[in-house]
Amino acid sequence: MKTTTLYIIRHGQTDWNKEKRIQGKTDIELNEEGILQAKLLAEVFTSLPITAIYSSYLSRAKKTAEIIAKPFGHQVIEHPHLHERDKGSIEGLLISEYKRTFRNQLEEHFSLNFYERLFNKIVEDSESFIDLAERILPTFHEICKNHEGEKVVIVTHNAILKLLLVLIGKYQEETLLIENGAILEIESDSKELSLITTEGIKGEKSTLFTQ
Questions:
Q1: Are 61 and 38 in contact (CB under 8 A)?
Q2: Angle formed at CA 204 by CA 176 and CA 37, multiple of 5 degrees
C-alpha cells in the first residue's frame, strides 16, 4: 500500500480559547484571530498537492477547514467522529476553575500509569482517553484507506492532537501545549500511523510506556 500523509490541524482561536475556557463539544465560533490563523494555514498548504480536506462538525473546525479549502476549490468533508472530546459538566469552566475544583482528581489521575490513565475519567460524565481512541483511530485508518497515497488535511481539536501525540509520539500528557493552528504530519502505510513532524507543539517525551 502507498504511504498516505495526514496533516492534522487544531482549529483557529475562539473567544473561549482566549479566555482559557474548556470547550469540549460546545459549539464556539472562530474569533478574528482564529480567522487570521486559518488564512495563514491556507497559505502553508497551497504549495502541497492536497486531495481532500476533512473537518469536525463543530463550527470552529469547519470554518478553519473551509478557509484552508478555498484556494483548492475543495468541498470540506464533514466527518461525524472528528469532534472534540466530550468534557461533560466542566464545559464552559475556566481552566483555572477546573484545576482548583478537581485538584484531587487530577493529582490521582497523573499518579496512574499509562494504561490506567486510558480508562480513568477525571469527570464522570466526560469521555475517557480510551473512548476517544476508539472513536478517532478507526476514523484515521478509514480516511487513509479511502485516500491511499494521497495528502489529506484534517481539521480537528486539541484532545485529538493530544491523543495522537501521547499514543504515537509518546509525549507526556500533562506537559503538552498545543497552539491553535498546530499541525501534526502523520504517515500511514495501512498498518500503523507514524508521527513525522510537528508545528505549534510543546511537550516532553513520556516514560509511562515503560511502566
A1: no
A2: 40
Domain 4-210 of CATH type 3.40.50.720: no
Instruction: Please give the full DSSP string across 87-145, using - where no structure is assigned.
Output: -GGGTTSBHHHHHHHTHHHHHHHHHS-HHHHHH--SSTTS--HHHHHHHHHHHHHHHHH
CA 63 to chain centre: 15
- 81 is annotated as an active-site residue: no
Residue 211 has pLDDT above 60, yes or no: no
The three grid cell numbers given for residue 17, joined into one nine-digit string: 480559547
Residue 207: its pLDDT value, please?
A: 65
Q: Name which of 47, 45, 51 is nearest 4 in CA terms.
A: 51
pTM (predicted TM-score): 0.94
Catalytic residue among 66, 84, 91, 127: 84
- The predicted-structure confidence for 66-104, as pLDDT tens digits, reads as follows 999 999 999 999 999 999 999 999 999 999 999 999 999
Q: Is 204 a catalytic residue?
A: no
* Domain boundaries defined on the chain: 4-210
| Mean pLDDT (whole number) for 105-121 | 91
Amino acid letter, residue 19? E
11, 83, 147, 157: the catalytic one is: 11
Q: What angle do CA 97, 101, 107 make, to 5 degrees?
A: 115
Strand partners, 4: 188
Q: Are 183 and 5 spatial neighbours (Cβ–Cβ below 8 Å)?
A: no
